[in-house]
Design brief:
The structure holds 2 protein chains of 2 kinds.
Chain A: E1 4-7, E2 9-12, E3 15-18, E4 20-21, H1 39-59, H2 63-76, H3 79-90, H4 95-111, H5 116-136, E5 148-152, H6 157-162, E6 168-173, H7 181-189, E7 193-195, H8 200-204, E8 210-213, E9 218-221, H9 225-248, E10 262-267, H10 273-278, E11 284-287, H11 302-316, E12 321-324, H12 360-377, E13 382-385, H13 391-405, E14 415-420, H14 423-427, H15 429-432, E15 439-441, H16 443-450, H17 469-484, E16 489-491, H18 499-507, E17 512-515, H19 520-528, H20 532-542, H21 548-559
Helix pairs in contact in A: 1-2, 1-5, 2-5, 3-4, 4-5, 9-19, 11-12, 12-13, 18-19, 18-20, 18-21, 20-21
Chain B: E1 2-7, H1 16-27, E2 32-37, E3 45-47, H2 51-55, E4 64-70, H3 74-86
Antiparallel strand pairs in B: 1-4, 2-3, 2-4
Helix pairs in contact in B: 1-3
Classes of the chains: A alpha/beta, B alpha+beta.
Chain lengths: 565, 96
């Protein structure tokens, strides 16, 4: 049989091949069944189950999840919840149905409170009610008998936490996004996962073997021998690359002759901190904050933003964390941010420019949340504004920060810097440098703007190489201007995580490289294979070649034998 | 009958974690204990021994809550719970 490959969203890296396991679907009605025990007997049993689960998670060092279940244990014995359910039983409902209705009622109130943290608890109440209903019906908690790939529409927290991680080979979900509870858990535990796989359940019915490719975002059902062999090769390559990276974990980012460059991580969510720290990140060079603003009906409030920023600041302790202000524009549809459609959204009203298009409050609220996070954690936040074109934008940025700080006596002052991605600001970097605390070059947009080559057009992909001499010369100028004013210059674009790109950047004098933690190993190996002097010479030569590909050759030649990574 | 008002300084208000500490504290007293959020709906009083009820108060940082108790150990209950809230319920809080 030939493999049917389904496309989904990659949620956690790695490859897993195992038979499928379908979690039991909690039915709203027990067809013809009779509840085994009453509410009063079921509750202590459910509480006991939840507490045992919390204990197990705590012993496994999964404190954050353990806490979720600590709260769930209290909810399961909650007098209000049980009184509501008992009343429904008196009115003639079956106990399992009564607890499900009572849970749903409470969940709806919480979800409607317009407070994110509380709304998230709605899922917990539903989870707790489902557990009590299961106990009433005398059903066992879900359990894996052998190594399996969980195949489901979605997995609630109780199911994912209950499963033995040693037997959970992979996760394939029909619904969900990268931010679903199951996806977060999968990343934390290193279990390959693909989510948002349309048509998965229908296609997987009757499949004997399921393969999950968490890098490509593919689910293969009953792969044929050739497909299986290919997957196994990828699995092995991935394992050996991980082993090689792990061996480099404690080695700093440096050239063979000991020139140190700061190694920082790009993250998109607070829960990615652990992976970055574990990989050896010396800080966060780019914390993208868009995740909080996407896929929702109203703007996130200040308190929930502050909690997210504080989580990252405290996770990194003394190490610097650069928080980027929202980079949103007309290319994204955001219900609470009505922006007119534009011909060229990347040259339009986006990011900092929103402040002058009637949305200053959005940015000031974000800034206030960042300042609050700084106060509560005692850690200095580094604030970075994207889409800065000139000095006027820099002054506007400082004005917005002052508005956010108005009336507060701050004991922790933020550092305010800019992302260098618009060519105009790169050209006047010498004028701007004295006015900011740091530069961070966004090489993806800088390249697209400098070469007038749309990043989103695949036909122009070859023109998107930041090793183009025009980009290298621009970066050289920005570094020179930054250093003349004594401020650090970082790079947080994809170029930093590309071994040849990283070599060029270090040759140009960049102080910090920020990238996805998965790229650390390759970049460390590349830099360790050369000396600073070699890189400086190569970066000078690369500024006068015909095409980016020629520059790439110069650095690849320097890497020599190490290239096969 | 005893009552007192205290300001909540937890950065994320009274969400699940600090509430768990509060509810466990309240459960130790025989008195009937009620809590209301003076900055949202002062008339809505909820059972201090129910986390789900307290969540519905939507208490955020800076909100003042009123704790009232009725029963044999009412005085002690209010004093202990006010103390718990003022000390941050196990979370780090800034100066008042």
């Amino acid at each position: 049989m030939n493999a049917a490959a389904l496309r989904g969203v990659p949620a956690a890296p790695g490859v897993a091949i195992a038979p499928p396991w379908h979690p039991p679907v909690p039915a709203a009605h027990l067809p013809g069944g009779v509840p085994l025990i009453g509410l009063a007997q079921a509750v202590p049993k459910a509480v006991e189950e939840i507490e045992a689960l919390a204990d197990r998670l705590r012993r496994a060092g999964r404190d954050e999840e353990a806490e979720i279940f600590g709260a769930q244990a209290l909810m399961a014995a909650d007098p209000e919840l049980l009184e509501t359910a008992a009343r429904l039983v008196e009115e003639g409902q079956r106990p399992d149905e009564a607890i499900l209705s009572a849970g749903e009622e409470t969940a709806e109130v919480l979800a409607g409170l317009d407070d994110e943290l509380l709304a998230a608890r709605a899922a917990d109440v539903r989870d707790v009610a489902a557990r009590i209903a299961r106990v009433i019906r005398g059903e066992e908690p879900p359990r894996l008998e052998r190594r399996s790939v969980a195949v489901a529409v979605d997995l609630p927290p109780s199911v994912t936490a209950e499963l033995d991680p040693a037997l959970l080979a992979g996760i394939a979900l029909e619904a969900g996004s990268r931010t679903a509870h199951a996806a977060i858990l999968a990343r934390a535990l290193g279990i390959p996962a693909v989510v948002g796989t349309t048509g998965l359940l229908a296609a997987a019915a009757g499949a004997g073997l399921v393969a999950v490719d968490g890098e490509r975002g593919e689910v293969l059902l009953d792969p044929d021998p050739a497909g299986l062999a290919d997957l196994e090769r990828r699995q092995e390559a991935e394992a050996s690359r991980r082993a090689a990276d792990a061996a480099l974990r404690d080695r700093p980012l440096a050239t063979a002759d000991g020139h140190r460059v700061m190694l920082a991580a790009n993250i998109g969510r607070p829960d990615e901190c652990a992976r970055a720290i574990d990989a050896g990140a010396e800080g966060v060079g780019l914390f993208r904050t868009e995740f909080m603003f996407m896929g929702r009906a109203s703007a996130p409030d200040e308190a929930s933003q502050a909690a997210a920023y504080a989580a990252v600041l405290s996770a990194f302790g003394e190490r610097p964390v650069v928080i980027r202000l929202i980079d949103l524009g007309g290319d994204k549809e955001i219900p609470y941010l009505p922006l007119p459609a534009e011909e060229n959204p990347f040259l339009g009203v986006r990011a900092l420019r929103l402040a002058d298009a009637g949305h200053a409050e959005l940015i000031v609220t974000q800034l206030r949340a960042i300042l609050t996070a700084g106060e509560t954690t005692g850690r200095e936040p580094w604030i970075m504004a994207p889409m800065v074109a000139d000095l006027a934008d820099v002054y506007r940025l400082h004005e917005l920060v002052a508005m956010a700080a108005f009336g507060q006596s701050l004991s922790v002052k933020p550092r305010v810097g800019i992302m260098v991605e618009i060519p105009s600001v790169a050209l006047i970097a010498d004028l701007v440098a004295p006015e900011v605390a740091f530069f961070s070059i966004g090489t993806n947009d800088l390249t697209q703007y400098l070469l007038a080559a749309d990043r989103t057009n695949p036909v122009l992909a070859a023109r998107q190489d930041p090793l183009h001499p025009a980009v290298l010369r621009t970066i050289a100028k920005v570094v020179e201007s930054g250093h003349a004013s004594g401020i650090p210059v970082a790079v947080c674009g994809e170029m930093a995580g590309d071994p040849a790109g990283a070599m060029a950047l270090v040759g140009l004098g960049i102080d910090e490289l920020s990238m996805d933690a998965g790229a650390f190993g390759g970049v460390k190996r590349a830099l360790a294979s050369t000396t600073r002097e070699q890189l400086v010479d190569a970066a000078r030569d690369a500024q006068s070649v015909e095409r980016a590909a020629d520059a790439r050759e110069i650095f690849d030649a320097l890497r020599g034998a190490d290239r096969v990574t | 009958m005893a009552e007192a008002t205290v300001e909540v300084r937890n950065p994320s208000g009274l969400h699940a974690r600090p509430l768990a500490a509060f509810v466990k504290g309240a459960a130790g007293f025989s008195s009937t204990i009620q809590v209301s959020n003076l900055d949202r709906d002062p008339e809505l009083a909820q059972n201090a021994k129910s986390m789900l009820a307290l969540l519905k108060l939507g208490v955020r940082q800076g909100n003042r809550i009123r704790i009232s108790a009725d029963g044999d150990d009412a005085e002690t209950a209010v004093a202990v719970l006010v103390d718990l809230v003022a000390s941050g319920l196990g979370e780090k809080v800034g100066p008042a």
